Amino acid sequence: MPAAVPRVLLVHGAATTARSWAAVAALLTGLDVAAPDRPCTGDLDQEVAALAGAAEGALVVGVSGGATLGLALAASGVRLRGALLHEPAAGSLVPGLLGPVAAAHARGGVAAFGSALYGAAWEPSMAPADPGAVARDLAVFRAFEPAAPRPGQGPVVVSTGGASPPVRHEVATALAERFGLARRVLPGCRHFVQHEHPAVLAGAVRALLVELPVA
């Protein structure tokens, strides 16, 4: 009997939509890939519930706020095959992480927020059409507190861009030390990895799938 095609769920963060995953998804040929637009409700439980069906039994791949939601999924009752989470928030473990982007949002709205978070490669057209979505996401991710993955989850890996600032590496270290999560560094990458270096992220996804037990 042929092995089941591995399922991959791509989860976007604040100020982006499922469109941000187009290049990565195109490189994950041969896999069962889902990249939904999140509802951006402003409620963590509702965001997790919206992803739960697609996440069940899948490798969850998230960037930024999508990685934060991946941590929440791993701590929930949803059974994950594994997770690759690029530069999530870490709550009180690294409390100053989101301060600069929150200040940018207060100063200049979505445009300033997106530029502060993702850099020059981000454009306002990449944000959701709903003008309140970013503010709701920001509130959720600033209030987020990480927890240990539930027993029985597949491996949860936190990745950091090799070119990302020290605070991002501090987050990965804090999560590894507190919860025993594995760490990976993606060479030459920064926060907006799915847009700036899709081949590196897609390669990391395929490498992790090779390491996972057969479903």
From TrEMBL:
GO terms for molecular function: catalytic activity. It comes from the Bacteria. Residues 8-203 form the AB hydrolase-1 domain. SUPFAM superfamilies: alpha/beta-Hydrolases (SSF53474). It comes from uncultured Quadrisphaera sp. InterPro entries: AB_hydrolase_1 (IPR000073), AB_hydrolase_fold (IPR029058). This is AB hydrolase-1 domain-containing protein. It holds the Pfam family Abhydrolase_6.
